[in-house]
From TrEMBL:
Origin species: Bradyrhizobium australiense
Pfam family, one: AraC_binding
Keyword hit for Transcription regulation: yes
Protein's name according to its UniProt entry: Helix-turn-helix domain-containing protein
Upper classification of the organism: Bacteria, Pseudomonadati, Pseudomonadota, Alphaproteobacteria, Hyphomicrobiales
This protein's record includes keyword Magnesium: no
Length: 324
């Protein structure tokens, strides 16, 4: 049992209340619990599109004027700012925007933009299904380090050589996307995977990018299970049983691959959702505690303060300081 202060084992579980929020293992960010806009990939009506692919490419300047901010997505989203300045907040972390800034976000992440009038660039949006359902596909997004490793920044600042390398791939993708020639779907998929792996090479030190690592593969399976089950499964033992490994093996894998134990990753994911709900909804602290599996709101507040150094109320009141 994970019985240290703030550990998942001490969260307490109230299945009826919790499952109304995390029903059937769905991640919390997919539930309509928040007033925050959830942008779906089918909402993207600018530029050309191939709806059967569940993927969209569009100029950044069109995205600036068509979407509500802040919002969260139900898809993967990449923003490449080639010119202009500003600020970009992703899950309450503020990033500077400057020429050749690249931002990558996973489903459920909340972001907000302020960009200068002269800002231009590219956006790529694609659903998990786009990667999963390709013919003869033996790869998934868990093979992409920027989407599978913990504690990576959501921002990447490219030098001229890196930007030129990615620009060539982007140009090839856009050409296939607009021409719609025979086999264009598979070509786009291949180019996109190359683009993502190129980004990963820049973002992730080679020492932890060993895709054949057994520990890394187990860690990815754990992260996938955690995203589906956090709030209903809050103990390392439960995930070890689900993944058919020992707790020791699971902790060793996540510690080596991600730098944190499984229990720490569970806490991190729950606290991230707490931050999202506090900053972007008007839900009361007691209800947030209940939704995240805490029987005692006071205990939730203590855990939250230990994690962030601020009480839930103080954290919620910090929202103005995160604005631009």
């Amino acid at each position: 049992m994970d019985d240290v202060e703030g550990s998942p084992a001490r969260l307490g579980r109230r299945p009826a209340a919790v499952r109304s929020f995390f029903s059937r293992g769905e991640p919390a960010h997919r539930k309509p619990c928040c007033s925050l806009p959830v942008v779906k990939i089918e909402h993207y009506d600018y530029g050309s599109e191939i709806k059967s692919l569940n993927i969209h490419f569009a100029p950044l300047e069109k995205m600036k004027s068509t979407l509500p901010y802040p919002h969260r997505h139900d898809f993967y989203h990449i923003v490449w700012v080639t010119r202009g300045t500003g600020c970009h907040i992703i899950d309450s972390v503020k990033y500077e925007v400057r020429p050749n800034s690249l931002f990558f976000m996973a489903p459920g992440q909340i972001h907000d933009f302020t960009l200068s009038e002269d800002a231009i660039g590219h956006t790529i949006s694609f659903s998990p299904e786009f990667f999963a359902f390709r013919v003869h596909n033996r790869h998934s997004l868990t093979d992409i380090p920027i989407y599978s490793l913990e504690n990576l920044n959501n921002a990447l600042y490219l030098d001229d050589m890196q930007a030129e390398s990615l620009r060539q791939i982007m140009d090839a993708i856009i050409e296939e996307y607009t021409a719609e020639k025979t086999g264009h779907e598979d070509v786009i998929w291949s180019y996109l995977r190359i683009f993502l792996m190129k980004i990963s090479r820049i973002a992730v030190p080679s020492a932890i990018a060993d895709l054949s690592s057994r520990n890394l593969l187990l860690s990815r399976r754990f992260k996938s299970a955690l995203e589906k089950n956090f709030g209903t499964m809050n103990e390392t033992a439960e995930y070890a049983k689900l993944l058919k490994v020992t707790e020791r093996a699971l902790n060793e894998a996540t510690r080596q691959a991600l730098g944190l134990t499984a229990a720490q990753l569970i806490r991190e994911r729950i606290m991230l959702e707490a931050k999202r709900l506090l900053l972007h909804t008007e839900i009361g602290v007691a209800e947030i505690a209940d939704r995240l599996g805490f029987e005692d709101p006071a205990y939730f507040s203590r855990c939250f303060k230990k994690h962030t150094t601020r009480s839930p109320i103080e954290f919620r009141q910090s929202l103005p300081t995160l604005n631009f």
